[in-house]
Design brief:
The protein has 171 residues and is mainly beta. 7% of the residues lie in helices and 43% in strands.
């Protein structure tokens, strides 16, 4: 079964089994609803622990979660640093022009002249729009804002993103 990351447990919170999560999904309200199942994976592990969300709330930049059957800090301490994932069958169809992070990371980026710029290695969500981080050989990374003026076409089948570099993006 395939799994996709939706968050990372960064710490515990209080003594009643709550954990602090940094969300890595565009759909935190949907992904972290009470009753949903998540899987906690240790770094580089091939299997995870199935967890059912009992409670969920926002706190500053974090999502605070409590899991069914894990009602004190001693039970959740072992999940610190774990990646939270969903199974492939938990993913819903997206509207045209929307993509899951795992579909974008690893795509080759090509400019308007057909030159390869590098590969998308990370997605940042600083505010109004996402920013795709493009890793280049022997150059600094490029930060591409995900806006229509920059991202011209995403071709998942070909594994390419066609972009138009606005002035100042490629320093």
């Amino acid at each position: 079964m395939e799994f996709y990351q939706v968050g990372k447990i960064v710490n515990t919170h209080g003594i009643r089994g709550e954990v602090k999560v940094i969300a890595t999904t565009d759909f935190p309200e949907e992904r972290f609803k009470p009753g949903n199942k998540l899987y906690a994976f240790k770094q580089n592990a091939s299997t995870g622990t199935e967890l059912t969300i009992q409670k969920s709330r926002r706190h500053k930049q974090f999502i605070m979660l409590a899991f069914e059957g894990y009602d004190n800090i001693n039970l959740v301490e072992k999940f610190k640093g774990d990646d939270l994932k969903v199974s492939a069958d938990q993913q819903e169809e997206l509207e045209d022009g929307s993509y899951y992070y795992h579909q974008i990371i690893g795509l080759d980026v090509v400019d308007e002249n057909g030159n390869s710029l590098g590969e998308i290695k990370e997605i940042l969500s600083p505010g109004a729009n996402d920013v795709w981080v493009v890793k280049r050989k022997q150059k600094n990374d490029i930060l591409l804002p995900v806006i229509d003026e920059v991202i011209k076409d995403v071709d998942l089948a070909a594994g390419k993103v066609h972009v138009e570099l606005l002035e100042g993006l490629d320093d």
